[in-house]
């Protein structure tokens, strides 16, 4: 733990009242959406400027104090959890949009800018920020960059990495670096910007980010299709992708849908009950495209892949169909789910899912399992729900034992143990299933270069 004298010194580095130490604040800011680890930070500090961040990092180096970055705290890998007396650096007050360049279609953001804030700003300029997910109303750009967040539009627009034009960072040594300077073409050696994207704050802190924007999509239209089994989803994806430029292709199980419908916020898409559902989205910019979509639906029904379906006819119906997918994570959080965020190449999804499903059926016959995910990019979310009468530690320990077989299967298919949630603490012991020993050694060497004293988010990605 950090002693009182050090905390007093920390207070001199920021504005009055911007260091908190009371129990309620430590509890709130010391955790993310995971429930695996109890938060136990020493203090929470709120910088407002790059200079203050730099001063905090230099103070931490001088006194060997560990720092943990905190954004919207919506992470699902415990990357923003302070469980061992660290000082949490919250970017809540570095939340301004600093500049907009209409010619380059770029926006300079502070790290505490909320995703939805950037999306709304882009819309006001007649443009579009396409990285989107259920937590857009609370997640922050700095955190999105730290985990290379994905979401529901990856099939068309890619991950956060694709939209970062430039970064200003404070390294673990306390140096300020400006990376890439927003250039589209830059062939001058190593692109250090890319190292910080997905680094979970282990190399340093992002203090400014220049984000690219895109043209606004036109007349977005969604379809929800009910399928007889999971195997039918992939030929449906192939059929639609061969004729339409999809902006999204998601899937969820009947159990996931039942949980959302039970909330009473959104109606069922249609009367038929199906074991699996696909949600796809595209730009219906002409009657011909809409007619092609309906023809593809009829083809899928004729092939026996699809049992029923609906296509949005209004903006409100589009929103309601998306709620069926986007409300899943929040809805099942009541059951303290154990989450696996795994991915393989799209062509391997059917065989991969069969193998994973066999493991699930053998090891969780008495537990409720909810499947959903971004099937269009090969990302599956496996959620095991904790029964009310089972204590958390026992439940997590049981799931951790099963991880061995789940991740061995991921390794067999050359997949990833964490497609979009990051590694943090929940996946760090399994990193070897997706990265070779040589890769991990190089990654550790990179961290040692940027953070020689090991103060930046220690225990995340790699074990201490």
What is the strand content?
A: 15-25%
Structural class: alpha+beta
List low-confidence stretches: none
Distance between the termini: 17 Å
Could you report the average pLDDT, rounded to the nearest whole number? 96
CATH architecture of the largest domain: 2-Layer Sandwich
Number of helices: 15
Task: Please give the number of β-strands.
Answer: 18
Question: Radius of gyration over alpha carbons?
Answer: 23 Å
Helix content: 25-40%
Q: Which CATH first-tier class of the largest domain would you pick? A: Alpha Beta
Number of domains: 4
Q: Main beta sheet, described? A: 7 strands, antiparallel
Basic shape: globular
Structural description of this entry:
With 464 residues, the chain is α+β, with helices and mostly antiparallel strands. The chain is built from 15 helices and 18 strands. The chain has helices at residues 4-11, 23-29, 50-63, 115-124, 141-147, 154-157, 192-196, 233-241, 254-263, 287-302, 315-326, 328-332, 349-363, 392-412, 437-450; strands spanning 19-20, 43-45, 67-70, 87-90, 97-101, 106-109, 127-128, 164-171, 176-179, 204-212, 214-215, 220-227, 246-253, 276-283, 306-311, 338-343, 368-374, 379-385. This is D-2-hydroxyglutarate dehydrogenase. It catalyses: (R)-2-hydroxyglutarate + A = 2-oxoglutarate + AH2. Homodimer. InterPro entries: FAD-bd_oxidored_4_C, FAD-bd_PCMH, FAD-bd_PCMH-like_sf, FAD-bd_PCMH_sub1, FAD-bd_PCMH_sub2, FAD-linked_Oxase-like_C, FAD-oxidored/transferase_4, Oxid_FAD_bind_N.
């Amino acid at each position: 733990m950090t002693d009182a004298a050090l905390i007093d010194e920390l207070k001199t580095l920021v504005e009055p009242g911007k260091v908190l130490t009371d129990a309620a604040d430590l509890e709130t800011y010391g955790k993310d959406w995971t429930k695996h680890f109890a938060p136990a930070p020493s203090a929470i500090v709120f910088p407002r400027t790059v200079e203050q961040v730099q001063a905090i990092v230099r103070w931490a180096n001088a006194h060997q104090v560990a720092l943990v970055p905190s954004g919207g705290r919506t992470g699902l890998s415990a990357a923003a959890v302070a469980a061992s007396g660290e000082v949490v650096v919250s970017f809540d007050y570095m939340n301004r949009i600093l500049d907009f360049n209409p010619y380059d279609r770029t926006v300079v953001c502070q790290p505490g800018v909320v995703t939805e804030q950037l999306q709304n700003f882009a819309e006001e300029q007649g443009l579009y920020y396409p990285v989107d997910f259920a937590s857009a109303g609370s997640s922050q750009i700095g955190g999105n960059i730290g985990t290379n967040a994905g979401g529901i539009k990856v099939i068309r627009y890619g991950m956060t990495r694709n939209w970062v034009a430039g970064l200003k960072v404070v390294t673990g040594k306390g140096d300020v670096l400006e990376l890439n300077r927003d250039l589209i073409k830059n062939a001058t050696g190593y692109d250090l910007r890319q190292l910080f994207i997905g680094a979970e704050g282990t190399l340093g802190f992002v203090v400014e980010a220049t984000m690219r924007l895109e043209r606004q999509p036109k007349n977005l239209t969604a379809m929800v299709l009910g399928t007889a089994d999971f195997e039918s989803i992939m030929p449906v994806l192939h059929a639609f992708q061969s004729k339409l430029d999809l902006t999204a292709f998601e899937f969820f199980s009947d159990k996931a849908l039942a949980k959302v419908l039970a909330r009473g916020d959104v109606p069922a898409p249609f009367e038929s009950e199906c074991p699996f559902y696909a949600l796809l989205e595209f730009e219906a910019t002409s009657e011909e495209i809409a007619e092609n979509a309906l023809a593809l639906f009829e083809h899928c029904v004729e092939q026996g892949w699809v049992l029923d379906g609906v296509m949005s006819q209004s903006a409100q119906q589009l929103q309601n169909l998306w709620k069926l997918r986007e409300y899943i994570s929040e809805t099942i959080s009541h059951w303290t789910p154990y989450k696996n965020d795994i991915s393989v190449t799209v062509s391997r999804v059917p065989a991969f899912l069969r193998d994973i499903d066999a493991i699930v059926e053998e090891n969780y016959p008495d537990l409720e399992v909810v499947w959903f995910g971004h099937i269009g990019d090969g990302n599956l979310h496996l959620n095991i729900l904790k029964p009310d009468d089972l204590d958390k530690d026992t439940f997590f320990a049981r799931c951790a034992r099963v991880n061995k077989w789940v991740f061995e299967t991921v390794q067999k298919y050359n997949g990833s143990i964490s497609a979009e949630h990051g590694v943090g603490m929940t996946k760090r012991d399994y990193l070897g299933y997706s990265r070779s020993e040589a890769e991990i050694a190089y990654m550790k060497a990179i961290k040692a270069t940027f953070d020689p004293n090991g103060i930046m988010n220690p225990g995340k990605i790699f074990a201490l």
